[in-house]
Amino acid sequence: MRVLVTRPEPGAAETKARLIERGFEPLILPLTKTVPLQPDIAKTLVDVVAVTSPNAIRHAPGSILDALKDKPVYAVGIRTGREARSAGLDVVNEDAGDAEGLTRRIDADFAAPCHVTVLCGRVRRDVLEMRLKAAGHLPRLIEIYDTLPLEPSAMEIEKVLGEAPVDAVLLHSANGAVQFCRLMRDPFTRTKLLGATFYCLSQRIADALQPIAPKRTEIAASPSEESLLSLLAPKG
């Protein structure tokens, strides 16, 4: 089973390894990339830290990590928690799953108003900060990285997809899905993906595919890669 991976590096390489372990043939074609923003951290009150993705740790300057080492950290998921712990942060919760879950866990453990420092990306939904504010907390966002589109050339696409059809496409973000819709304007790409099933990490990502209206779309039960990969089943 040939599986197209569209997420940025280094996540794409991690997904590739997991696919190989499961007996699939991964095809790596990142459609976005993450770049650091080098923000500063002003001296202010910090009761708790919320981290929304592994990239918010990978791209964080040492000055920010050092300033937050003694603060309790709530991570959106296990992979994010692992990155934060490796960076020396004090991870106390890593099973929230999404922004709503992060808010519920912080709200359960800290009385409002609580000063929440959020390490996040520039391209994001505003769910976490809005939920925290609605609960009476005081979020302060530090944008650690940006997400930029990638436009692979026709030669790059043909090299990755090869001669055989693609059986499955993994989509980890709405930004990646938007880029993928642009990719599908190419006749060669459309031909290779005629029989593919599109596996999305969330309903929002699936909704972003509406311009190409894929016939076969499946959505992970929870916003984790383990849940996403569990949808894949080898043919035959």
From TrEMBL:
Keywords: Lyase, Porphyrin biosynthesis. Transmembrane segments: none annotated. It comes from the Bacteria. It catalyses: hydroxymethylbilane = uroporphyrinogen III + H2O. Pathway: Porphyrin-containing compound metabolism; protoporphyrin-IX biosynthesis; coproporphyrinogen-III from 5-aminolevulinate: step 3/4. Pfam families: HEM4. It is an enzyme of class 4 (lyase). Its EC number is 4.2.1.75. Residues 14-229 form the Tetrapyrrole biosynthesis uroporphyrinogen III synthase domain. InterPro entries: 4pyrrol_syn_uPrphyn_synt_sf, 4pyrrol_synth_uPrphyn_synth, UROS/Hem4. One of its GO terms (biological process) is protoporphyrinogen IX biosynthetic process. GO terms for molecular function: uroporphyrinogen-III synthase activity. Catalyzes cyclization of the linear tetrapyrrole, hydroxymethylbilane, to the macrocyclic uroporphyrinogen III. Belongs to the uroporphyrinogen-III synthase family. This is Uroporphyrinogen-III synthase. It comes from Nitratireductor indicus C115. The lineage of its organism: Bacteria, Pseudomonadati, Pseudomonadota, Alphaproteobacteria, Hyphomicrobiales.
